[in-house]
Amino acid sequence: MRFISFHVNSFWYKVTKKGRSSIIEKITEDNREKRVEEALVLFISMEMQDEKNTEILERAIVEIEKITNQLKITNIVIIPYAHLFGKLSTLEFAFESFKSIESLLKTQGFSVTRLPFGWFNKLDMKAKGHPLSRISRKIR
């Protein structure tokens, strides 16, 4: 698993059209469009090797918590993002992983927004400019 994170003043998205994925999450009024203030925005890719690692999600949660603790924030945005990395996991594994990450973070007390899987979105993000405002991680 890999992710790139941005500490933002604000983040907004709006679902625009279906992607080419064979898994298309249902769009509702709750997930069609949203704005989040003072958040950690995570662009996450699940990789093929993650499917064999039973601890990958727990390790990711630990890394995300470290970052949010340093930033002293509780709002998190999860964006499924396959565009930066080569050997991606299956769609099914990725979809279930994103839902699990969302659920695990919520049980830790975070307010989590997860963008719908399989859709293109308009994005507006106002990123901060301090040393921890952009972080990448490779979770193994």
Automatic annotation (TrEMBL):
<dbReference type="GO" id="GO:0005524">
    <property type="term" value="F:ATP binding"/>
</dbReference>
<dbReference type="Pfam" id="PF08915">
    <property type="entry name" value="tRNA-Thr_ED"/>
</dbReference>
<protein>
    <recommendedName>
        <fullName>Threonyl-tRNA synthetase editing domain-containing protein</fullName>
    </recommendedName>
</protein>
<dbReference type="InterPro" id="IPR015011">
    <property type="entry name" value="Threonyl-tRNA_syn_edit_dom_arc"/>
</dbReference>
<dbReference type="GO" id="GO:0008270">
    <property type="term" value="F:zinc ion binding"/>
</dbReference>
<dbReference type="GO" id="GO:0004829">
    <property type="term" value="F:threonine-tRNA ligase activity"/>
</dbReference>
<feature type="domain" description="Threonyl-tRNA synthetase editing">
    <location>
        <begin position="1"/>
        <end position="139"/>
    </location>
</feature>
<dbReference type="InterPro" id="IPR023509">
    <property type="entry name" value="DTD-like_sf"/>
</dbReference>
<dbReference type="GO" id="GO:0005737">
    <property type="term" value="C:cytoplasm"/>
</dbReference>
